[in-house]
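User: Sequence in, structure out. Go.
Assistant: Echoing your sequence, followed by the structure tokens.
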Amino acid sequence: MCNLTEFLFGKEFNNQQQRHPADNNVPANPLRTSSIFHFTKSLDSLIGILSNGLIPNYCSETLYDNNNINITLGIPMVSFCDIPLSRTYEHTKKYGYFAIGLGTEYAEDNNINPLLYIDNDKLIRDAFPAVFSGKYTRAKTVLPSSYLGLLKRVYGEFKGQEMNNYAENEWRYIVPSDRKYSKWFYTKEEYMKWRGNVDDPKPSPMQNHVLLSHKLIFTAVDINYIIVESEKDIPMLIAYILTASEIGGSLFPISDQDKYYLINHITSFERIRRDY
């Protein structure tokens, strides 16, 4: 039985979605998927992503020096994960019940990489000694700064609770550190000045023009999934797609074929919880 896209446009159009050839050998129900998912907290935010693309913003990362004193970094990024949808219950509670899933070939083409999880901070300190000496702006590191953004401790905290970071299967698109244009924050003070008081944080400030210039643009066929919280959210999303003029921050007009393709790739976490 064919799906809506195959019925309207044939199997050739349906096969246009981005998928790395190596993913054809991945068995069913793997520990990781052949899509990368970006989660968000509202339907409005999801529609904003579909309209404007994925825009990086600063996220904090905590590392520890030789004296077990934490160092907070502010790294401009877009985060993804490749957790199978049947295992996303805890993830959605933290990051939101709305998501867009892009193909792994899109990830490869746009320098989106899986993280390297490290249990021993000494490995990070050895690679980036200047960060831990407090002299980053005056010293060179062993590796480019973007590598630092792809390293994460196996265990960490989320809202005061210890958590296993490794279980999140995180991927990141990192905006490289540039002292003049795309600045990273290398101290907790710098990051909190941008973010607000840790006990009463302000909403994430709007992205500046530099981060906007690094946004991820995508087309309809880059999308494997559009996921909303419940079935009742789907009609509003379909209404948006049918009236959209562009998709994913691209300036190219969206075709009727693309609109039907996107509609055919909508699902809900309500349905996923029920069926998987």
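User: And one key feature?
Assistant: Residues 137-142 have pLDDT under 50 and may be disordered.
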